[in-house]
Design goal:
Layout (H helix, E strand, L loop, with lengths): L4 H21 L7 H16 L9 H16 L16 H20 L2 H4 L3 H20 L7 H15 L3 H11 L16 H19 L2 H15 L7 E2 L13 E2 L4 H11 L2 H12 L5 H10 L18 E2 L4 E5 L4 E5 L4 H4 L13 E5 L2 E10 L11 E6 L5 E14 L15 E3 L4 E3 L7 E15 L2 E21 L4 E3 L2 E2 L5 E2 L4 E6 L2 E6 L16 H4 L11 E20 L3
């Protein structure tokens, strides 16, 4: 097939810019092993690619050898690379080995007259690969995606020099089963790790070892991701268990995966996603170019793009995406916090339960903050969707949080020395042997019902329990302006009565609390004791407005997408 000119031109521009930038920057003393090998890979790929402005330039190979020498200086006695917070790390080293092996693969596939000039570089890379291989055959991991990154390194080492030992070790990891749920989401629920680790790793594992299960997992994840691509070319991350749960993640890193499988499977929906990814920009051009040189199908014209069939629910993540002509809603009720009662890396703890897109106006986060024993914002412990009479589904989220007052110890459990076990109350630790005491419980029960409408949603909130303040936070994106609200001293706003709106150009999102609503004072977000005792927060960024009240209480908030003039 013919080359895709738009893709190739965009890639050429990105590669040429990155080559210029890296040549100008040179190698810095603090450069890590992954940076060094990615730099070398880019220079080799740009040297070999005829469309590159520096194609055939021996200066690129000199620069690549400079990077490889610096990389070799970071290789420790075990063969693993030094640097980073994960010490003597097989999986972290695997990221570098994967780039190294792909670079060797490019050299080995080059025409004889070109390969001859790369012999010294190939030798140096081969020696590094030989030194690290034993550590990857025996080394362990500490996150789910590391299994596939290290298995991909084993696969690439096997592609270079077939070995039953390399294959057997990769198959040990694969025998655990690929951690993808029926709704097509990996166990870490992270767009970042799907795009950068799991999908590319499983693809090369499928290619080298003929693993149809690995290929099927990638395709299923790409299918699932289609429904999570928003109008602003980001991929939904509110349900993630990793660092991206509090960030926006571009669809751009999915570019080569969607292009490859659109070409391989003739899928118009994947071609549609590839167009969106290209529109978002070419990130990490070294990776994109290397994949293109290894698999030229990535650069071919794709089948005609076709909008994907809608997927509106991800049951295992308790996530719903609901779109109409006027707005797009995201409803989330699947954090891990109600089960584990703590904030940790690897857990889903984002308290955002609703987003809304309406043209250029984006309501990025709706959260309910409570002043209740430092137990933090609302995070649903139950989530259910119901559809009545073929209409729009209603989504019900609920949570009960409790704190305790403890009674004196029974006589047989007392210690005259006053020394008792340091135990967890659920909010803090104390030397009071909490589990051995009778306790009085104080509870706060919250229910949130979300009913989508053609132009927005109706959010009904009920809070039952002792008198305590709460604040509903609406956090928006962009450089818009509020109307109908009062600005607080910290720059945030509060809705005192009536209707407010957030406007960006001629797009707006109105928030209407009804005639019965009246503000109960200033509004602010309380992250809970998990963050506060460290002086930290998970607070949302951007323009924010608060609706405030006290428990027990009710609030019915209507959100509407509007198009304004002037």
């Amino acid at each position: 097939m013919a080359a895709d000119g738009e893709f190739q031109t965009a890639l050429q521009d990105a590669v040429d810019d990155e080559v210029r930038r890296l040549l100008s920057a040179g190698i810095a003393p603090g450069d890590k092993h992954r940076q060094l090998m990615e730099r070398a890979k880019l220079f080799v790929a740009a040297h070999l690619w005829p469309r590159s402005a520096r194609a055939g330039d021996p200066a690129l190979i000199d620069a690549a050898r400079e990077s490889v020498r610096a990389l070799r200086a970071l290789q420790g006695p075990s063969g693993l690379f030094i640097g980073g917070d994960n010490v003597d790390s097989p999986p972290d080293s695997s990221f570098t080995v994967n780039d190294l092996c792909d670079t060797l693969h490019l050299i080995e596939a080059a025409p004889d007259e070109v390969r001859d000039g790369l012999g010294a570089l190939a030798t140096e890379l081969g020696e590094i690969a030989d030194a690290v291989e034993p550590a990857l055959v025996t080394g362990g991991v500490h996150t789910p995606n590391h299994r596939w990154e290290i298995s991909a390194a084993l696969a690439r080492l096997h592609r270079r020099r077939p070995s039953s030992q390399l294959r057997a070790r990769a198959e040990q990891w694969l025998a655990e089963g690929i951690d993808i749920t029926p709704d097509g989401v990996y166990s870490e629920r992270s767009a970042n790790y799907a795009a950068y680790v799991s999908n590319p790793s499983l693809s090369v594992i499928a290619d080298v070892f003929g693993r149809d299960d690995a290929r099927a997992a990638v395709v299923r994840n790409l299918e699932s991701t289609l429904g999570l691509i928003h109008p602003d070319d980001t991929v939904e991350t509110v349900h993630s268990r990793r660092q991206d749960q509090l960030k926006r993640f571009s669809v751009a890193p999915y570019l080569t995966a969607y292009r490859r499988y659109a070409a391989e499977l003739g899928r118009g929906d994947f071609a549609w996603a590839a167009e969106r990814a290209l529109r978002a920009g070419v990130v990490h051009p070294s990776a994109v170019l290397t994949e293109l040189l290894i698999d030229p199908r990535i650069g071919e014209e794709l089948t005609d793009a076709a909008a994907p069939a809608p997927q509106d629910a991800w049951a295992q993540s308790c996530l719903v995406v609901d779109s109409s002509a006027l707005r797009r809603l995201v409803v989330f009720g699947g954090t891990d916090y109600p089960v584990v009662r703590r904030v940790r890396s690897g857990l889903s703890t984002n308290p955002t339960f609703l987003r809304m897109f309406a043209g250029d106006a984006v309501l990025d986060s709706v959260r309910l903050s409570r002043d209740f024993f430092g137990l933090g914002p609302f995070r649903a412990e139950s989530f259910a969707s119901e559809r009545e009479g073929g209409g729009a589904a209603r989504h019900a989220l609920s949570e009960t949080v409790s704190a305790h007052y403890y009674q004196p110890l029974e006589s047989g459990r007392r210690d005259p020395s006053g020394e008792y076990a340091l135990t967890d109350d659920g909010r803090f630790f104390g030397s009071m042997s909490f589990p051995e005491r009778a306790r009085d419980e104080v509870s706060l029960r919250t229910g949130i019902d979300i009913e989508p409408t053609d132009d927005g949603a109706v959010v009904s909130i009920s809070i039952d329990g002792p008198d305590s303040p709460w604040a509903l936070e609406l956090a928006f994106r962009g450089e818009g302006r509020f109307e109908g609200v009062t600005t607080q001293d910290d720059g945030t706003a509060v809705l005192s009565r009536g209707v407010g709106r957030y406007r960006v150009g001629d797009s707006a999102i109105a928030f209407d609390a009804g005639d019965a609503y009246e503000s109960h004072g200033p509004g602010r977000y309380h992250p809970g004791e998990d963050y506060a005792f460290l002086g930290a927060t998970d607070a949302a960024d951007g323009p924010r407005v608060y609706l405030t009240g006290r428990a027990p209480g009710r609030l019915v908030l209507t959100l509407r997408a509007e198009r304004l003039e002037g």
